[in-house]
Amino acid sequence: MKGIELVKLIDTSLCTACRGCQVACKQWNEVPAFRTKNNGSYQNPPDLQWNTWTLIRFQEYEDAGGKFTWLFRKDGCMHCTDAACVRVCPSGALYHTPFGTVGLRKEKCIGCKECVSACPFNIPRYDKATDKIYKCDLCQGRLQDNLSPACVKSCPTGALTIGAREAMIKKAHARAKALGGDANVYGDKFVDGTHVIYVLKEKPEVYDALPVNPHVPLSVMAWKDLLKPLSLVAAGGVLAASFLHYIIHGPKTPDDADNQTKEGGA
Predict the structure, then answer these.
(1) What is the CA radius of gyration of the chain?
(2) Please, what sign has the CA dihedral across residues 107, 112, 114, 119?
(3) Kind and range of the H or E run holding 234
(4) Which fold has domain 6-215?
(5) Could you tell me the pTM of the whole model?
(6) Contact 32/143 with Cβ under 8 angstroms?
(7) Which of 6-15, 129-138, 180-189, 250-259 has the lowest mean pLDDT?
(8) Could you tell me which residues come within 8 angstroms of residue 77 by beta carbon, excluding any fewer than 6 positions away?
(9) How far apart are the first and last CA of the chain?
(10) pLDDT digits (tens, 9 = 90+) for 60-76
């Protein structure tokens, strides 16, 4: 898998909500589990958390004909090509990997939470105790060793697969066509494409916590493309002026500072 742009395909029509992927993610990444309370749903925990990077969402659904069914969806980082989180991260903690995914250097995270507000999929989660954010990195360490992500490895039904980008997109569209009805492919066209895509049995608007038209906020684009470069130019100007002053006048001595203070007070 080294050097290949990868996509993870989630075929919701094959998911049985066994939550094997959810458990495997915790085990491989050695993140703790917390005791929870029943909130009237089999979904547990209720949402993504700093220590829960992948979550099976349970949803009761009744179609227009009155037919009841369960909808299961594995939720987690979509690994956007044009990732808003990478755009706004000031420390370089979030970055694009050679696989096209979005990695996280936890030691560089400064807890600013800019990525939390920028993400169109509401993925990064903040932990107050460590003052850092957490999210799925698609098991980057495993990918580097030519291994599948832990979630893909654990899936007993083939609902999760991973492979070269173009091949997986082609596979997804073929599967959606075979399913027919309202089946569709989600994720291959948003934010320049994501590296996690779905085959959905129903239209996107049916699914809980799934944005119909995710996009990078305009404020994020303005920061990356206009305001941030201007701020860097301004900072560079200050440094250049300080250096020029040093060359012309030399370093400021304590006596100089005292004299300026006295003159100002005279």
Answers:
(1) 24
(2) positive
(3) helix 228-249
(4) Alpha-Beta Plaits (3.30.70)
(5) 0.83
(6) no
(7) 250-259
(8) 53, 102, 121, 123, 135, 136, 137, 138, 196
(9) 73
(10) 999 888 999 999 999 99
